[in-house]
Amino acid sequence: MRLKMELAFLSDTGKMRSNNEDCALADPAMNLAIVADGMGGHSSGEVASAMAVNVTRDKLESMQRTGLKPGAYDDKYSLETNQLGFAVQLANSVIYEAGNSVPEKKGMGTTLSAILLNSNRIIIAHIGDSRVYLFRDGVLQQITEDHSLVMEHVRQGLFTQEQADKSPLQNILTRALGAQKTPLIDLKEIPVMENDRFLLCTDGLFKAVTVDQIAAILKSNENGQKACELLVKTANDNGGPDNVTVLIGFLKKKTLMETLGDIFKKSYA
């Protein structure tokens, strides 16, 4: 069965911030979706998140077009996963160099969470504390791991989740793009099915809206754009403490004409 990914997203400044340092990309032609949450003073967060999204997308597109195999290749993963991981590492290098070359941009960085549909698998590249969730058969499951100090403490049994949610340390990241020359990027491949939905979001959503509320909104709204609007509205109704960005990828079966179109394109590529 051939799948396609229908994409919808919405980003909002929230109620407590004056500018939006989030950035998102939904590219249905590439079956690629990315969210990023920037950090740093003097508007550096906006610059870092935009760099992360644009460099990742452009480098991945270039590698897909040429079939380039990255030099640092991990045999555990497919070519496409290696290409996405390499593209994210390149984005890190660009952000790292920019942050160290201009004094007012020193310390800028960003989270990044990306999904790429490849046949009947979703490829995930992730760093920071933005999140990717899978919504399948009415159940919402977080499939990325937050790279934050409080969640490290939760995983070590030092904090409960309730303590972590109230901790003043919850904004301290242990990993982000731009913070190191070569940070570890989490890569994952997940077999998928028709009607799976993937939710990508920045922390402005899950710090204001509970997992149960998110699941209820997704369950009652199959229309991706409507669900995005309701998720952002709920975050703002609950105080809107941060920029909030949500992106939904809905996996659907390709029509016969779409499948034939893919075969035709490959034949004449």
3D architecture notes:
This protein is of the alpha+beta class and 269 residues long. The protein has one domain: 4-Layer Sandwich (Phosphatase 2c, domain 1). The chain contains 8 helices and 11 strands. The strands form 2 sheets. Strands 2, 3, 4, 5, 6 and 9 form a 6-stranded antiparallel β-sheet that branches. Strands 1-11-10-7-8 form a 5-stranded antiparallel β-sheet. β5 and β6 form a beta hairpin.
CATH superfamily: PPM-type phosphatase domain
Structural category is: alpha+beta
Which regions are unreliable across 5 or more consecutive residues at pLDDT < 50?
Answer: none
Task: Please describe the biggest sheet, giving its number of strands, its sense, and whether it closes into a barrel.
Answer: 6 strands, antiparallel
What would you report as the Rg, rounded to the nearest angstrom?
A: 18 Å
Strand content: 25-35%
Architecture in CATH?
A: 4-Layer Sandwich
Provide the CATH topology.
Answer: Phosphatase 2c, domain 1
What is the number of strand segments?
11
- Average pLDDT score: 92
What's the order of the H and E elements? EEEHHEEEEEHHEEHHHEH
Give the number of domains: 1
